[in-house]
């Protein structure tokens, strides 16, 4: 991946954390607040405000967005948080750095995600100025102070406790760290299983410090167009990166279960984005895609090399491609993923899906 100046991570295991399930009666009327943390899969424009190369603020990004303009989302249209907002009946959150995020708009929640970041501080260093997890959590505190001066401390606490939180993290710790260079510092320091243990232990600290909510994981890193272009001879998924995801994801589920046990309630929910992606990667035609190997926008083999820009080759119909750019799904693929988040079985959502959570909360 050294040759690609590239971005970002991969679809993943997303974790939805829900704080204080349904403790306060009567609060279910207004759409609940939504907070988003993580990387490019969920960034909706924070990096537009930063001096970084990890950005999606020029065409053809956003070509199918309602405004048909780039927004900073790494998608042709909507991304996963947008579609979740749609499902819970809320407007999309604004990027935390947007000057429009003030007044009443604060009540909707906020998106703190930043393309290029990972669990580790040294992930994505080539992107320079991005919002790493400690900073995202600091901004979340700052957000609460700002909201507090608007609606008071008690109401702020209530809004935050009842919010839905999404965290998508981990893919970049592989593609933009361990596997970034043939002999990366981290790969010289750790064998793959030891590296996974290390990032999982760091992840658990992030989850532990950020209250009772949150977050993360990695998708089929070996199957995205960027990986196929860089590492695959025959178009089959790269075994090494699939192995990395295969080691990481089960351990993530394990720490989620541990945290839930420690807390004594199902605060954390893990979404198995690996399985969600593998469905349409293994059988794209069954999902109405002509291919899951070739990105809609890019260049070179599988359109998997470099950035998606105005000079890239661009597919005419984004709805029949699983991947928009070398790393990120199309809006249509994001909709398939969110459908599983909403109503998937335990093979996808553990311990329960989002519609079950919403129904439980509406009852209490
Ligand atoms: C990451 O950076 C923050 C400060 O920005 C620091 O508090 C934290 O300990 C660092 N994490 C690691 C694992 O070095
Ligand atoms: C998930 O959601 C669907 C639709 O709301 C529901 O029927 C189903 O039982 C749920 N599955 C699990 C495993 O929770």
TrEMBL record:
> What domain of life does the UniProt record list for this protein's source?
Eukaryota
A molecular function (GO) term: hydrolase activity, acting on ester bonds
Q: Which keywords label this protein? A: Hydrolase, Lipid degradation, Lipid metabolism, Signal
SUPFAM superfamilies reported for this sequence: SGNH hydrolase
What are the boundaries of the signal sequence?
1-30
Q: Name one Pfam family in it.
A: Lipase_GDSL
Could you give a single Gene Ontology term from the biological process aspect?
lipid catabolic process
- Which PANTHER family does the annotation name? GDSL LIPASE/ACYLHYDROLASE FAMILY PROTEIN (AFU_ORTHOLOGUE AFUA_4G14700), OS02G0617400 PROTEIN
Q: What family is it from?
A: Belongs to the 'GDSL' lipolytic enzyme family.
Stated name of the protein: GDSL esterase/lipase
> Which organism is the protein's source?
Colocasia esculenta (Wild taro)
């Amino acid at each position: 991946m050294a040759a690609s100046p590239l971005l970002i991570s991969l679809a993943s295991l997303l974790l939805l954390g829900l704080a204080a399930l349904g403790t306060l009666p009567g609060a279910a009327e207004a759409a609940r607040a939504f907070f988003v943390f993580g990387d490019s899969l969920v960034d909706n424009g924070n990096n537009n405000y930063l001096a970084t190369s990890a950005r999606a603020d020029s065409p053809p990004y956003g070509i199918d967005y309602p405004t048909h303009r780039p927004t900073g989302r790494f998608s042709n249209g909507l991304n996963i948080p947008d579609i979740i907002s749609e499902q819970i009946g809320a407007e999309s959150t604004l990027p935390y750095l947007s000057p429009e995020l003030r007044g009443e708009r604060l009540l909707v929640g906020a998106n703190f995600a930043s393309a290029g970041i990972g669990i580790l501080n040294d992930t994505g260093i080539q992107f320079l100025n991005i919002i790493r997890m400690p900073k995202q959590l600091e901004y979340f505190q700052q957000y609460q102070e700002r909201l507090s001066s608007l609606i008071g401390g008690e109401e702020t606490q209530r809004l935050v406790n009842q919010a839905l939180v999404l965290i998508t993290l981990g893919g970049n710790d592989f593609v933009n760290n361990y596997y970034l260079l043939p002999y990366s510092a981290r790969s010289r320091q750790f064998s793959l299983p030891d590296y996974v243990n290390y990032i999982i232990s760091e992840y658990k600290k992030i989850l532990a410090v950020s209250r009772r909510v949150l977050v993360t994981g990695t998708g089929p890193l070996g199957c995205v167009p960027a990986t196929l272009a860089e590492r695959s001879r025959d178009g089959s998924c790269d075994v090494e990166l699939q192995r990395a995801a295969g080691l990481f994801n089960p351990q993530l589920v394990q720490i989620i279960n541990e945290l839930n046990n420690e807390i004594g309630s199902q605060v954390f929910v893990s979404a198995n984005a690996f399985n969600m992606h593998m469905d349409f990667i293994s059988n794209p035609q069954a999902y109405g895609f002509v291919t899951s190997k070739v990105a809609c926008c890019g260049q070179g083999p599988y359109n998997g090399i470099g950035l998606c820009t105005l000079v890239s080759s661009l597919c005419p119909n984004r709805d029949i491609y699983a991947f928009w750019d070398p790393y990120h799904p199309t809006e249509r693929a994001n909709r398939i993923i969110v459908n599983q988040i909403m109503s998937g079985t335990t093979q996808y959502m553990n311990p329960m899906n989002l519609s079950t959570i919403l129904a439980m909360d509406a009852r209490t």
